[in-house]
Amino acid sequence: MNSLIPLLVAAPLAGAALLLLGGRALDRFGHWLATALAALSFGFGLALFSDMLGREAEHRAITKHLFSWIPVNGFQADISFRLDQLSMTFVLLITGVGTLIHLYSVGYMAHDERRRRFFAYLNLFLAAMLLLVVADNYLLLYFGWEGVGLASYLLIGFWQHKPSAATAAKKAFIVNRVGDMGLSIAIMLMFVEFGSFSFEPILGSAGTVGGAAQASEGKLTAIGLMLLLAACGKSAQVPLQSWLGDAMEGPTPVSALIHAATMVTAGVYLITRSSAIFDLAPDAQTAVVVVGAVTLLFGAIVGCAKDDIKKALAGSTMSQIGYMVLAAGLGPIGYAFAIMHLVTHGFFKAGLFLGAGSVMHGMNDEVDMRHYGGLRKHMPVTFVTFGLGYLAIIGFPGLSGFFSKDKIIEAAFAKGGTEGWILGLCALVGAAVTAFYMTRVMLLTFFGEKRWQPDADGNAPHPHESPKTMTIPMVLLAFGSVFAGGLFAYNGSFLTWLEPVTGHSEGDSPLAPLVVTLLTTACMLAGVAVSYLMYGRSAVPVVPPVGSPLTRAARRDLLQDDFNHAVLVRPGSALTAALVYFDSRGLDGFVNGLAATIGGISGRLRRVQNGFVRSYALSMFGGTLVLVATTLLMRSV
Amino acid sequence: MNPVNYLYLSALLFTIGAAGVLIRRNAIVLFMCVELMLNASNLALVTFSRLHGTLDGQIIAFFTMVVAAAEVVVGLAIIVSIFRTRHSASVDDSNLMKL
Amino acid sequence: MSALLTVTCAVPAAGAVLTAALPAGSTEARRSTTKAVALGVSAVTLVLAAVVATRFDPHGARYQLTESYSWIRSFGITFSLGVDGIGAVLALLTAVLVPVVMLASWHDADPAPVAPDGTFENRRRTQGFFALILAVEAMVIVSFYATDVFLFYVFFEAMLIPMYFLIGGFGDRAGGPEAARQRSYAAVKFLLYNLLGGLVMLAAVIGLYVIAQDQGLGTFDLQTLTSAIADGKLQLTGTAEKALFLGFFFAFAVKAPLWPLHTWLPNAMGEATAGTAVLITAVVDKVGTFAMLRFCLGLFPDASKTFAPAILVLSVIGIIYGALLAVGQKDIKRLVAYASISHFGFIIMGIFALTSQGQSGATLYMVNHGISTAAWMLVAGFLISRRGSRLIADYGGVQKVAPVLAGTFLVGGLATLSLPGLAPFVSEFLVLVGTFTRYPAIGIVATFGIVLAALYALLLYQRTMTGPVKAEVSTMPDLKVRELAVVAPLVALTILLGVYPKPLTDLVNPSVNATLSQVHETDPAPAHPVAATSGGEQK
């Protein structure tokens, strides 16, 4: 069975290679080929899953060694895979949601002349993401990690003729590279400390203790902080969050798959996977929860102010991943809930993005929500699926988001002490704000009066429901949004499933679970109510009002780009310019100056040759005199 | 007569010749001054020969005379040809090889 | 004693003479003959170099296939050749790149008609160009195979002559007199820098000989000298060893080039044709880094250790400095040149970290940088030849009109920024790990290089390939079949060596171990080693 693991990666990889090298011949059916291969990969995933369920909890992890990748003395990196409950969860999420989004893209990209290439990149993404989660060592994980970065770069910049898309793609890659730097330093630290960077020897597995237990806390904290830096890059956490909003330049299915459901959650995977390290490094854990808490508020605030539907959802994604990172930073109390929220978020956020894509599809690619309004009559399927996703994300009791988010807030309080109170309150405030901005999105898009106008060319949008290839994935994801949470929470099934990998412990919460649930629900209802008062009762202006300074800052992503510009970009370009000057005038100037000096001296010396016989004769006499005088002097001494 | 006096004479003649070479511009005069210097050294050689009682100095003096004669032939020919082409015997005018 | 190595060196040398002697290229047919002959010779050389690499047994003696002929007996100078894993791999790289460069420069040296009646500027241009390339190839291969210090020195210096003519005589002709002036400036600068380095090295070579002769070892033979140094038969005083080390190292650091001796490279690569630029950075410069491994470490182990920290600091400055300057360039070819300076910093860092990961990584880096930079630079050359401008600002939106060109250019850029899965990643990571185990601070600073690499590679791609299509590039044709034949093997090798570099590491590892044991260095041991269970089958 374990030889199926490489095939999991190989199927979409083959698709990508075929579509990229196959040329125009594949234009006609390439997209279906890609979708079929994604589905095939999902099939392999299901087969492996059923096989895994057939074994006892402790023996579920399987490995597959393919070949030795980089063998150098003492440094052993292999292409080898490890599939345990944690990776299995991801495999199913990635291939499942991935297949649905392939299907959706068949309709969404129907009129794009470069559709074949789009599907090649999507397949490439699936392969890299699967590699990331089934790798059995950190270096191979890094391979997948950068591979998804590449796929993300290619897909964000898919419409390369738009300068904004090209810039956004480059920005995403470079910000991610800063995170990747953290990952590579972490791997180097592990190599120095353990002489290895494979999961099992360092982290241990069910029943065995890994090498991490022997290392000093300082070393583990350093490794943990570097891993956190990596996670911040990939998961768009503060301070490396700035790329996610711009990444919405990519086609909407990409935003759904990569920048909502799967890739951006890789940071959470990394932290959870490295739980053995973080558990022994409390300082690193504190850093993780701080990052998570700050980002969940940051993203939520940004989400409140955006008029671009995709950017509002991007702020929300950032915020929701903040929840997951927060939970992962809580240690064994939170790992399982982080992953649970990750999966449910995968369903409802992918659904919301696909819904947004469907709206844009019907509205001539208009993204400004102030130009929507009243769309529920024109797009009933989109409205219903989007609405279910909305209810799930705000944590409406009974839907997916309710179960997972509630557990995270509970775990935050269970952290104990002042820290627990602060984190818990942050999470509660986050829940209220989430409800506020999501209600805002909902009201602006589907309710109220229609606000769209003809564009400059006089083409008025004719909102219509999207084709079946697009609505079917939306419906399926809506099912997930509704039922997944309940299924996972039923009898603690998800917890039991993941426990052999991540471990679990109950903290001691100062508040009873029921109190937390009630508080959360109250916060959520308050958020909805405020939003309804602001946007539901009166007509929404088409031109955005000036707003308070906070609103204006939030519209500019809380000045993140201004900050990066002032602190990094401008000094960086000044330094570069100075160095270019230094290289040509300083270093090269020195060398050229040396050459010029020698030339100058010989020019001076040349003037002695004035062409007058007498002066030559004089110098000869002088020379003779000097010689004679020296000889005499030497004699006399 | 003390032979050292011939050495003083020789030094005097050499100095006159050298001063002439450095000061005068006319190629012929220059040439004569060079001859004067050569002959001054000839005189010194012969004197030393006499002083030491060996023939070495006299032999070298003969060599010098032969070389000087050859030099006169070549040198005068050059001066004449320069005078023909440039209508001047001043050495300052012939500085064509200066860069 | 088989003559395989001599034959491998002699084939391109003879080919150079033959090519130069072919009839002048006033007609297309004659030029094609010239090119076909040169390409054929380089293909034969490739086969021979591959045979050498396969005949080399990694588990056998340090130097294999050795040959030795007496040359200048009174000074103990011999014509001795022999390969170790590193030399075999680098000679193979040279032999792979030369035919690729020839194919890429197919029309770069065609004489241009200067008058309408069909008279040409210089009818022997084509012959000259291809003969010079073959001459460079022969000299470089001798340098990689030489096991006699003096023999190495002679060819290390002699390759400057054909390179000088290649840089100064063949560039893009569109520029007019100003471009010609720049080109000759670049060629003279290249020559002067490297001659100065060579001069210092010559003094050190003579010094080494004099000291060795005083102790009864009047020879230039590398193996004799290194083993004599290792078992104490040849003793250098501390000062003498340091001075000689610096003499050798200076020459190699100029050639490599190491910061701050790098300023000739951007000029040379900028003004030369793309093919020549690849020869400079991917082939000729590798002799410098190769020689550091073989001569500096082998002959002067103690001085190498003494100077290693200082050299590491210079190389890490080079990494960051080169990358920052690449970001600030306006000229595509100069950008590639500064990127190469950054990469040479990595190579030198790997060598002088004195760990087996670092040195294996550095050797792989030489190969991988050769291949990936060749791909990047040659595609850049194709791009430039279509538009006739080296300025980045003159391009925009090329991917719309020439997607294959843009795609291969992106692959070259991604290789340069060391994306995992492509060959340079393997070597860069090994170098970083190897450095980090001994000097963590330097390793971390060098890691910033990977962010800057992403910045310059992607900025270049964004500015030239994406955005709205500029009017001047709107009719640009995509890659032709010949150009695809140039790029395809390079891209294939980049991917292959990125996923499965084992054949190379197997060749290189034993030689690296031998080098390290010469310096009496061992790898730092991990603090809490864990049993490597990676690779086990299902339990």
TrEMBL record, chain B:
Example of a GO cellular component annotation carried by this entry: plasma membrane
NCBIfam families recorded: PRK05715.1-2 (NF004320)
Protein purpose: NDH-1 shuttles electrons from NADH, via FMN and iron-sulfur (Fe-S) centers, to quinones in the respiratory chain. The immediate electron acceptor for the enzyme in this species is believed to be a menaquinone. Couples the redox reaction to proton translocation (for every two electrons transferred, four hydrogen ions are translocated across the cytoplasmic membrane), and thus conserves the redox energy in a proton gradient.
Topology in membrane: Multi-pass membrane protein
Keywords recorded for this protein, A-Z: Cell membrane, Membrane, NAD, Oxidoreductase, Quinone, Translocase, Transmembrane, Transmembrane helix, Transport
Superkingdom of the organism of origin: Bacteria
Full protein name: NADH-quinone oxidoreductase subunit K
Family membership: Belongs to the complex I subunit 4L family.
Lineage: Bacteria, Bacillati, Actinomycetota, Actinomycetes, Kitasatosporales
Keyword Transmembrane tagged: yes
GO biological process: ATP synthesis coupled electron transport
Enzyme class per UniProt: translocase
Substrates-to-products reaction catalysed: a quinone + NADH + 5 H(+)(in) = a quinol + NAD(+) + 4 H(+)(out)
UniProt GO molecular function: NADH dehydrogenase (quinone) (non-electrogenic) activity; quinone binding
Transmembrane region(s): 6-23, 28-48, 60-83
